[in-house]
Amino acid sequence: MKAPTHHLFLCGSIRANGEPNGVCKNKDSLALLSYLQSEVKDRMLDGVEVAMTGCMNMCAHGPILIDYPAGHFFGKITESKIDDILDAIEEGEVASQHLIS
């Protein structure tokens, strides 16, 4: 398997006991995950993988999306921001307006 060029990790607020509980979950990160997966598939973005994570301890910025291996951290994710981030990926750019500074 070839390594993805963009591995997008979305915080799901999963705790060590397996329960989703926290800011990102309360801000519908699970629905955002579904939207993100659908958009990547609909856009046929080769080299882009999507995964949900446990709590990233960045609750003030949640929901959080990380683009790995680039190391870009995006905060307060919404469907609109997902569209901007994926548009930028398609153009070989970064949606810098949504980066956590």
Q: Quickly give the structural class.
A: alpha+beta
Measured by DSSP, the beta-strand proportion falls in: 15-25%
Report the order of strands and helices: EHHEEEH
Q: Compute the separation of the termini in Å.
A: 33 Å
CATH architecture designation: 3-Layer(aba) Sandwich
Q: Going across the major beta sheet, what is the strand order?
A: 2-1-3-4
Name the CATH homologous superfamily. Answer: Glutaredoxin
Biggest sheet details: 4 strands, mixed
Number of domains: 1
Envelope shape: globular
Write a structural description.
It is a single chain. By secondary structure, the protein is an alpha+beta fold. It has one domain: Glutaredoxin (3-Layer(aba) Sandwich), CATH 3.40.30. Helix content is 30%, strand content 23%. The protein has three helices and four strands. A four-stranded mixed sheet has the order 2-1-3-4. A hairpin with a 3-residue loop joins strand 3 and strand 4. Helix 2 packs parallel to helix 3.
Structure at a glance:
The protein has 101 residues and is of the alpha+beta class. It is built from 3 helices and 4 strands; from the N terminus they run βααβββα.
Keywords:
4-stranded mixed beta sheet, 101 residues, Glutaredoxin, 4 strands, single chain, alpha+beta
